[in-house]
From TrEMBL:
Keywords: RNA-binding. This is Tudor domain-containing protein. InterPro entries: KH_dom (IPR004087), KH_dom_type_1 (IPR004088), KH_dom_type_1_sf (IPR036612), SNase_OB-fold_sf (IPR035437), Tudor (IPR002999), Tudor_domain_containing (IPR050621). Residues 1-29 are annotated as: Disordered. The keyword Ribosomal protein does not apply.
């Protein structure tokens, strides 16, 4: 406009005509100063009014989506939400207020733009939620298939956008080796987990919920087919018990699925002592029923994350059977029902291994439960210094 009319233009203040007001909302206004000859200034003013008249009205609409589906909308490193914004033209803002809460508790997503842009963004977001719904259904099937441990999975309700009143990924991924998920949990981030095995509240294992849960299911199916093949019987039979070696083994004799396990040793009666690296539990097996692990089955990271409960220690220095039973009930141990976990620190063990010290939250009831504090209330535990756990 300046080039066309010869007038000089600049905006005054930062919002609502008040210098330094700092109001940058869509409804704020600013004074435009036009300087020049009467003719050039008048022509510039007319052009400015023309631009204003042609500018579409900016609308704002809020929707609610389930908390567990937010990751699908954001994408790794924010790539998906940037793509949604670019395609639709709408500004998409997700409420970042983070608090431990029910995984199904909705989060507010604010959409800004023209009516056409917002409608396009709504369609794109709904597509992402349907992708998440399919993923959650696959997780439910995977959990239900683990019937040897009598675990049940609650199927999530159909996911959909809720208006707010204006107010086949392969498991065989590249890997440097059989690395654990031990360092995958991040401080101050709440993640959904399954508690897969418990020794006591100071020593238990979790699996993080995500695409790797489905990859693990596929790995176990492929490994079961392998263990039942003639190739496994001829070329991968265990002839010597070597502690530390990875094998394919069943958890129980009547279990038809094979899982990855590490040999811990051999019992006096000839049984092989096994640690299941994706679940955290132990079992004994006959040497004839286990097979050396094919190399490609070992490329997938171990899924059992070894943890300890934060901020508490047992009354009398030892966890009682009652406290362990209470902890298993609160965490739905081996029942494939999700709870929330947050790392508070890491306990350094031998060999540079870091054990996550975590808070656990049961969010499935009418009120969220801090599981550590619940053990204290029930008289099974006392509060302890977090630095003591770290050391």
């Amino acid at each position: 406009i300046q080039k066309e009319t010869g007038a000089w233009m600049h905006f005054q203040g930062k919002g609502n005509g008040q210098a330094g007001s700092g109001d940058s909302s869509n409804n704020s206004s600013r004074i435009l100063v036009i300087q020049g000859t009467p003719e050039s200034a008048h022509q510039a003013e007319l052009l400015v009014h023309q631009v204003i008249a042609e500018t579409p009205t900016v609308l704002t609409e809020e929707i609610e989506v389930p908390r567990y589906a937010i990751g699908r909308i954001i994408g790794k490193g924010g790539v998906t939400i940037r793509e949604l914004t670019s395609v639709s033209g709408a500004k998409i803002v997700i409420d970042r207020n983070e608090n431990f809460t029910n995984p199904d508790h909705p989060k507010t997503v604010t959409l800004s733009g023209s009516r056409k842009q917002i409608d396009c963004a709504l369609v794109l977001i709904q597509d992402k939620l349907e992708e998440e719904e399919q993923f959650q259904a696959q997780l439910s099937v995977a959990a239900a298939n683990r019937d040897h441990r009598s675990r049940n999975q609650t199927v999530k309700e159909h996911i959909k956008i809720t208006p707010v009143a204006r107010k086949d990924e392969n498991w065989d991924i590249p890997s440097s080796g059989c690395v654990s998920c031990q360092e995958s949990l991040l401080n101050d981030v709440y993640v959904e987990v399954y508690v897969s095995a418990v020794e006591h509240p100071g020593h238990f294992w979790v699996q993080m919920i995500g695409t790797k849960a489905l990859q693990l299911e596929q790995l176990q199916n492929d490994m079961t087919n392998f263990a039942c093949s003639d190739d496994a019987k001829l070329n991968f039979a265990v002839k010597e018990v070597n502690p530390g070696e990875l094998v394919a083994a069943r958890y129980e004799e009547n279990d038809g699925t094979y899982y990855r396990a590490k040999i811990l040793g051999e019992t006096p009666d000839g049984k092989v002592d096994l640690y299941f690296v994706d679940f955290g539990d132990n079992a004994y097996a006959d040497k004839e029923t286990i097979f050396r692990l094919r190399s490609d089955f070992g490329s997938f990271p171990f899924q059992a994350v070894e943890c300890m409960l934060a901020n508490v220690e047992p009354v009398g220095g030892k966890w009682s059977e009652e406290s362990i039973a209470c902890f298993e009930e609160l965490t739905y141990c081996a029942k494939w029902k999700s709870i929330l976990a947050r790392v508070t620190t890491y306990k350094c063990l031998k060999g540079d291994v870091k054990l996550p010290v975590v808070q656990l939250f049961n969010t499935r009831g009418p009120e969220d439960i801090d599981i550590g504090m619940e053990l204290v209330k029930k008289g099974f535990a006392v509060l302890c210094d977090s630095d003591k756990q770290k050391d």
